[in-house]
Amino acid sequence: MTANVETRRRKLDTDKQDSPEDHDGGHQPVSSCCDRICVAHVHSEASDAHTHSCVLQTSGSYTPKHPQRTCSFVEEILDENPCKTTISAENEVEAQKLANNYKFGFRKWKSHVTERPFEDRSEIVKELYSELNVIKPYSVGSLFTCGNVLYVFLFGWWISLVYVFVGLLMFLTVFGIPYAKLCWRLSCYFLWPFGKSIEKASVSVPAYSVKILEDNSTLEAEEDGKPCSPLLLPTPVEETIEEPTGSPQVDHYWRRTSTFAWLLVGYPLLAITHSVLCLISWLLVFTIPVAKMSAKTLHTILLIPPENVRISQATEAQQHEDKVILCCYHAVNFYYYKYTVDGINVFAVNLLLLVIVSLVIGYVDKSNQFVSSEVKFATAVSSIIPLSYYIGMGIASISAQSNFAVGAVVNATFGSITELTFYITALLRGHHQGNKCLQEIVKAALTGTLLGCILFIPGICMIIGGLRHREQRFNSRSAGVSSSLLFISIGGVFAPTLFSKAYGNLVCEDCTNHTGTNSSGSFMCKNCHYDLSENSYSLFHSHIEPLVYTISVLLPISYIIGLIFTLKTHSHIYDIHIGDGTGHLGTSVHWSRWRALLILIAATVLMSACADLTTEHIQPILSHSSISQYFIGVTVLAMVPEIPEIVNGVQFALQNTISLSFEVGSCIAVQVCMIQIPILVLFNIFYDVGFVLVFSDLHLWASIFSVILVNYIFMDGKSDYFQGTALVVVYLILLALYFFAPSPAGC
């Protein structure tokens, strides 16, 4: 014991001398005396200012220069317990969301579920939400950028031509000549709007004010801003009450003949043009400034008197007191991938249009007269991506505003609803059509989800995180717990398969010899599988089926035990101390619990519709494609619904919290084994769709090898670029095996 203590003290002295100097969230070494503790400061934009620090406290007087880890040396020696993870967030709801990321059975969510104070966000993010009405000539740099030139080729030239055409129409009406001149000026503006400003010119109307003197002795009237206070009186303190200017002119403007001509001839054409421009530029995301510029032109600039519209260079506008309506410097901003609408990422908002399109073409064009089955399948599968995002955000919102029990139930039910909807729909359709191929596709998708979560998600997170951080460390004990649960769940799922391989009868179909006859000699067979049908009643019904039911009961029980493990029994591994907030009171969540629940229900209904279209139009692809059906199942059908989770994992890795990146994949894999597969078995009991929990040899050995490899990598508590590359390469090798594998039996 004494030698162990001396060794730890020497390590502490070494850590004191070699304190980390990385201010940008880089690698911070972790000593062996205590596990890592992350203090998540969420006081500003997550991707820019989300830092993780640790503080190491010893009995000496040493004060670390940079935040490190919190751990008492004496307590560590006496208790042998890991240090506590401390979370400091803007508010209690956000802290609860961050705490849920460390709990077993809870889906990991990176984005905020509450509104962040705008003043605390970075200047880059503030620029994303600007109204394009601020003149800043000294901080924009060069205006001849690639994005601005791209604007001219994509939008500028045809918008300018539309304004020239509308100007000609207004000129022919005679009454609309003022608007014709405005259109010609705006045609030059929209060809190259950068560095120019559009202001609403002020109208010179006499303004009257009343001056109130301090001693209330005299009231003097002012006209046209000229002071008229007497000489030998104290300096007056005045309150200026200006008459509203322009109101009579606005009323007169809407009664003009030219205005009627403009609203009937010119404005509708420009409204259609700007609506198309706004839609296209919004869908492209990075050109959202163009959408803002078009929207402001449509609802503001084109509806004010033409004589009040003034176009000038931005530097000249500073010399006037006119109100700036529009001033744009750049058409493209690559940081708009961070843009949110009511807490929803802009990509998820835009992809809702894809959901609508897939439902319309799928249920309206039943006979495939206008759209092929391949296109319908692609749109239906892609529609699962935004719906998975909405389900994930709904789960995170409810969990962050509820207690542990409610959060666990919501994560266990809606957390698997995306995959279960597709699996049950495919099994039902295969049963009604008598097509066993869809059952094999479901098994391939289950295995593909396991392989992707075990190998690809941790691997790609290690690679991308390793590009920013040379080496990332994580709590090996926590990772060991997740890996152990994953190993147990994989073993339970594939136990019936191992049993059938040991005692089942191998049956081969389409067997022929080299001469093409069924005479004696060497044979070449296709579709070899183990007979688990009614013909093998003794093996299947007496041995394998009871084993499947037993495992389907034990796996959910193991999941419940894992929840109890997180909450009670071993809370010292995961315990989260919620830190004090930063003083922002009255925090409002993006989605309340009821709103999140309604969105979850709506997304689930839409998900079932998209899953129905996917299974309906997958059969032509399976029949006419030269690619193995195994490959389609383990790639497209397995990984497309997990794209939002992959994005979350990559964001965690970039912020040096690689442990959460691992937990993203582990959580999905554990839910597949402990929740989704038992539910499919239970569903098959009440409605026999022919689902048998026996997998092919390729599924079996690929999954077992993957979980053993990941358990080995997670042992040392650190990750780097090369380990991630190894995992991704192994995943790609397995995909190559599936690509060249023969089609499963029944396909």
From TrEMBL:
Major location, coarse class? membrane
Chain intervals for the UniProt region annotation (Disordered): 1-29
Where would I find the Sodium/calcium exchanger membrane region domain in this sequence?
378-494, 596-738
Please give the start and end residues of each transmembrane region. Answer: 149-177, 260-286, 344-363, 375-392, 404-424, 444-467, 479-499, 547-567, 596-615, 660-686, 698-714, 721-741
What InterPro entries is this protein classified in?
CaH_exchang (IPR004713), NaCa_Exmemb (IPR004837), NCX_ion-bd_dom_sf (IPR044880), YccF (IPR005185)
Inner membrane component domain location, by residue? 146-196
Q: Where in the cell is it found?
A: Endomembrane system
**Keyword set includes Transferase:** no
Q: Which domain of life is it from?
A: Eukaryota
Keyword check for Protease, yes or no. Answer: no
Gene3D superfamilies per record: NCX, central ion-binding region (1.20.1420.30)
List, as start-end ranges, the regions of compositional bias called Basic and acidic residues: 12-26
Question: Sorted alphabetically, which keywords does the UniProt record give?
Answer: Antiport, Calcium, Calcium transport, Ion transport, Membrane, Transmembrane, Transmembrane helix, Transport
Bilayer topology term: Multi-pass membrane protein
Name of the featured protein: Cation exchanger C521.04c
Q: What is the lineage of its organism?
A: Eukaryota, Metazoa, Chordata, Craniata, Vertebrata
